[in-house]
Structure to design on (620 residues):
């Protein structure tokens, strides 16, 4: 029972983290129709910036805020220099260009920070275990991730659904030319949205950093997961991304935790211990394949025109 | 005759002649490294050409094409590990396994379009990657060493560098010939028609998905052959050949060379792999140059190298 609660919280935390990454991706895709493989690189850069700034300033919160700002800036510069010229091009061009950016970022990080990973140590007040329900202790830091991610999700919802900026974003998603014709500075809007997406990816990266090590290529595996999420949720839909992210986080975590035991009941223990790791890694890809076969547009398609 | 004399054909002829004459150069100069490098290039050119068949002509943007490299490779590797060394068994199994995989994932993936297709093929390739990582009997994550190359009963000796090179080259030209025949056949016309306007082709009465699926399976099988060659070339197969960045590499080769042009992917593979080799000799941080270079190619060089040559020919 204890284990189930703990793994459930782990899954929720992982899912919310994935949501932060997927939200930026789906915004950029939904509004600019741009496939950004380099989103995972921004996630990685967020983690590296955080490790560096926290070490510099000696203050966890201050370092994190600086890192967030740096990732936002990086996203804006990237969009301004290169990516904005690719809007309206074929998706394949996006894939190729951002694939090039991944290569660039990985080697740039290796050049600046070296091939060895970095660690981002937590301040003492975040390492204490918290009693969530009687008898179940859970690390404060992971609870903090859940809280921050939920707050960001709420904020994102309010911004997109309740503000003028959000209205423009939604309008841009459903008809690009029209809102340009109505006198909205669409280029600025695009740059802002891309920066926002970059900051969200950076936030996900820096929050994950203390749990895993900060290393080159850390953004690649998780990027694929984020893509799986936006495809399951329906590309361009934030609500879909939110639900799909939590779903994927839970399935992945619970699958890894309980599938080996479950398989051992059916198969011989040798066969189970061989099959379980592969099967639990495949679970979410199978889920995606099933969703795409049954509902090729994802579970919550964004703009039904 | 005048049509034949243009920059595009000149480059194709030059590369073809270069590839055929390469072993002559290496045996005179004793530069065996060039032969090893070009064997790899030729194998990847075959893989990229097969991707070009579905991507360039069929409009199916598969982001999981490297899966077949792994499947072909593992078919050879697993059979070799189980003591079946005959190429007459290994290679047909490699082709059949790739074809079967392509048939299954194609039947599911072709229900989707656009970015969803890119993503679902990626997902299936990742699944194959994880299955291979889980094969603890065959090395798992660490990969599988192949101690003896495929044995063709004295017909051809794969351990002889030159013979193996020419075998790879023959496979490449055979593959290109097949693609050329397919593209110019009625079947190929239907597939290309569907790329342009699927609804119209369907209205004329062609079962769209069946044609695409057949094309998808042919491309997968061809890439499986490249996988079998690659495993023999490196004497090793590991899940890493199926990783999604490998699929990305193949896509880059096709786009770099020129999508939907018969010889484009060959040029793309030659340029991409030689650039990688050259840059990594100059600096350890070769991707620092390669990355922005790819970005530049996308930004300024539409249609790839073949497109550039085409424009040059027209003056």
């Amino acid at each position: 029972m204890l284990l189930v609660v703990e793994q459930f919280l782990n899954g929720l935390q992982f899912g919310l983290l994935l949501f932060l990454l997927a939200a930026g991706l789906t915004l950029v895709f939904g509004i600019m129709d741009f496939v950004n493989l380099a989103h995972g690189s921004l996630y990685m850069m967020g983690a590296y910036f955080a490790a560096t700034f926290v070490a510099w300033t000696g203050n966890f919160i201050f370092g994190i805020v600086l890192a967030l700002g740096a990732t936002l800036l990086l996203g804006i510069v990237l969009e301004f220099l290169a990516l904005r010229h690719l809007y309206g091009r074929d998706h394949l061009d996006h894939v190729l260009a951002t694939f090039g950016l991944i290569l660039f970022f990985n080697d740039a990080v290796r050049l600046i920070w070296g091939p060895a990973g970095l660690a981002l140590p937590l301040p003492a007040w975040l390492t204490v275990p918290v009693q969530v329900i009687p008898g179940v202790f859970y690390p404060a830091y992971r609870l903090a991730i859940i809280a921050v991610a939920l707050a960001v999700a709420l904020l994102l919802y309010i911004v997109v659904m309740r503000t003028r900026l959000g209205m423009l974003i939604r309008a841009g998603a459903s008809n690009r030319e029209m809102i340009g014709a109505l006198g909205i500075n669409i280029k600025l809007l695009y740059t802002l949205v891309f920066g926002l997406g970059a900051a969200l990816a950076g936030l996900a990266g820096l929050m994950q950093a203390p749990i895993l090590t900060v290393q080159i290529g850390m953004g690649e595996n998780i990027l694929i997961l984020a893509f799986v999420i936006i495809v399951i949720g329906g590309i361009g839909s934030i609500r879909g991304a939110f639900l799909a992210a939590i779903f994927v986080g839970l399935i992945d975590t619970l699958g890894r935790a309980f599938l080996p035991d479950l398989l051992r009941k059916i198969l011989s223990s040798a066969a189970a211990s061989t099959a379980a790791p592969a099967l639990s890694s495949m679970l979410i890809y199978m889920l995606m394949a099933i969703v795409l076969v049954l509902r090729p547009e994802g579970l919550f398609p964004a703009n039904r025109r | 005759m005048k049509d034949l004399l243009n920059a595009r054909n000149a480059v194709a002829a030059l590369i073809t002649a270069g590839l055929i004459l390469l072993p002559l150069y290496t045996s005179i100069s004793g530069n065996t490294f060039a032969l090893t490098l070009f064997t790899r290039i030729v194998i990847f050119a075959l893989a990229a050409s097969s991707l070009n068949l579905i991507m360039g002509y069929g409009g199916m943007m598969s982001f999981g094409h490297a899966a077949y490299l792994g499947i072909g490779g593992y078919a050879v590797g697993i059979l070799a590990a189980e003591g079946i060394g005959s190429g007459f068994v290994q290679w047909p199994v490699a082709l059949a396994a790739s074809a079967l995989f392509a048939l299954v994932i194609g039947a599911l993936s072709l229900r989707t379009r656009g970015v969803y297709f890119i993503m679902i093929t990626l997902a299936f390739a990742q699944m194959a990657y994880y299955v291979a990582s889980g094969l603890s009997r065959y090395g798992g994550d660490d990969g599988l060493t192949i101690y003896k190359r495929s044995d063709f009963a004295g017909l051809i000796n794969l351990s002889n560098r030159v013979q193996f090179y020419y075998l790879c080259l023959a496979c490449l030209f055979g593959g290109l010939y097949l693609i050329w025949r397919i593209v110019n056949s009625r079947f190929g016309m239907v597939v290309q028609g569907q790329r342009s306007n699927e609804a119209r082709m369907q209205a004329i009465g062609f079962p769209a998905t069946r044609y695409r699926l057949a094309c998808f399976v042919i491309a997968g099988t061809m890439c499986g052959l490249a996988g079998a060659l690659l495993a023999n070339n490196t004497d090793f197969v590991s899940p890493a050949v199926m990783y999604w960045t490998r699929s990305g590499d193949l896509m880059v080769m096709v786009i770099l060379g020129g999508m939907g042009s018969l010889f484009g992917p060959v040029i793309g593979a030659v340029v991409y792999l030689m650039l990688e080799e050259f840059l990594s000799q100059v600096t350890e941080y070769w991707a620092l140059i390669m990355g922005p270079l790819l970005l530049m190619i996308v930004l300024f060089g539409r249609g790839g190298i073949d497109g550039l040559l085409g424009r040059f020919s027209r003056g």
Notes: DSSP finds 13 helices and two strands in chain B. The domain at 2-314 of chain B is CATH 1.10.3470 (ABC transporter involved in vitamin B12 uptake, BtuC). Chain B touches chain A through 47 residues (CB under 8 Å). The two ends of chain B are 18 Å apart (CA to CA).
